[in-house]
Specification:
Distance between the termini: 18 Å
Helix content: 40-55%
Number of strands: 9
Shape: globular
CATH architecture of the largest domain: 3-Layer(aba) Sandwich
Largest sheet: 5 strands, parallel
Structural class: alpha/beta
Strand order of the largest sheet: 7-6-5-8-9
Radius of gyration: 19 Å
Order of helices and strands: HEHEHEHEHEHEHEHEHHEHH
CATH topology of the largest domain: Rossmann fold
Strand content: 5-15%
Number of helices: 12
Number of domains: 2
Oligomer: single chain
Length: 314
């Protein structure tokens, strides 16, 4: 593997928009290289002697495991810290916490509710802060999505993607990376579940610059016709459980099933960022079918996180 460039050293990754199109491609290229090197069982000690903190306010499977494994494979040490175990839970400020932890750690990944908490950490820390998921964005997932799509089709420019369901944090980050890399993305969401209009408007500007396209529609069947990628996410996220029945009813027409996959392009793939609720947002025959790249997509979370660390940690 070639030497890691210094361009992004010390930078945070709190949302996809933090990084330029060229920087996002750099991360994807490095993730591809790291995936190859892992398959060859080559040890890459890019982070010797570095300790990376993992602060979690939400439970996790993919984010926690891929982070801990990725840090170890780069020669560093992961320090998992439930937020409830920090003085944050007893009123210490985010600013003070960021300043102190910057003296001990080489980077921090945060999985939390409010985007503002990640942004405040990044504003005061002297080390890279990586967003492991907030209610507003999921940038590492978007990188893994782009990596998976590029692996299958060899490019991102001009690839048609349809997102089905709730215009949530995953939708926001997918729209952004699609807009910055020249993809053509249609988000099919019912009224009341549309993505943040400010995110959508700024993605339109990104798409105009990259030659991509971003559209919003409410007709799921119309949206999937001829699409090369069909993507969905859970309909009821953490904190929305009390609204579950209404959400299931409103989102029912947006289920990723065999009928919609049949309307897509002949080489279309199905993606889901997981965890999946089979029979709700996706059917079993699609999730476990031969056109599903969901498990490659999940694996790629490991490779993109390693790439982000390799690019940012000093």
């Amino acid at each position: 593997m070639a030497g890691v460039p210094e361009t992004l050293k010390g930078r945070s990754f709190t949302r996809v928009a933090d990084w330029s199109p060229d920087e996002l491609r750099m991360a994807l290229d490095l993730a591809d290289e790291l995936k190859v090197e892992r398959a060859r069982r080559r040890e890459l000690r890019i982070l010797p002697g570095r300790t990376v903190g993992l602060i979690f306010r939400k439970p996790s499977t993919r984010t926690r495991i891929s982070s801990e494994v990725g840090i170890a494979e780069l020669g560093g040490m992961a320090l998992y810290v439930p937020a409830a175990d920090l003085q944050l839970s007893r009123g210490e400020s985010t600013r003070d916490t960021a300043l102190v932890l910057s003296r001990f750690l080489s980077a921090i990944l945060i999985r939390t509710f409010e985007q503002a908490e990640v942004d405040e950490f990044a504003a005061h820390a002297s080390i890279p802060i990586v967003n492991g998921l907030t209610d507003a964005s999921h940038p590492l997932q978007a990188l893994a999505d782009a990596m998976t799509i590029r692996e299958r089709f060899g490019t991102l420019e001009g690839i048609s993607v349809t997102y089905l369901g709730d215009g949530n944090n995953v939708c926001h980050s997918l729209m952004r990376i699609a807009a910055r890399t020249g993809m053509r993305l249609v988000a099919a969401c019912p009224e009341g579940y549309l993505p943040d209009p400010h995110v959508f408007e700024s993605c339109l500007a990104d798409a105009a610059a990259s030659g991509g396209r971003i559209d919003l529609v409410t007709d799921a069947r119309e949206a999937v016709v001829g699409s090369q990628v069909l993507y969905t996410d859970v309909w009821t996220s953490m904190g929305q459980e009390s609204d579950r029945e209404r959400r299931l009813r409103d989102l029912d027409p947006y289920r990723l099933d065999a009928e919609k996959l049949g309307l897509a392009a002949p080489d279309a793939i199905a993606l889901h960022c997981l965890p999946a609720h089979v029979g709700e947002e996706i059917t079993a025959d699609v999730l476990y079918g031969d056109r599903s790249l969901v498990w490659d997509q999940a694996e790629n979370r490991l490779h993109v996180y390693k790439a982000v660390l390799a690019l940012t940690v000093r």
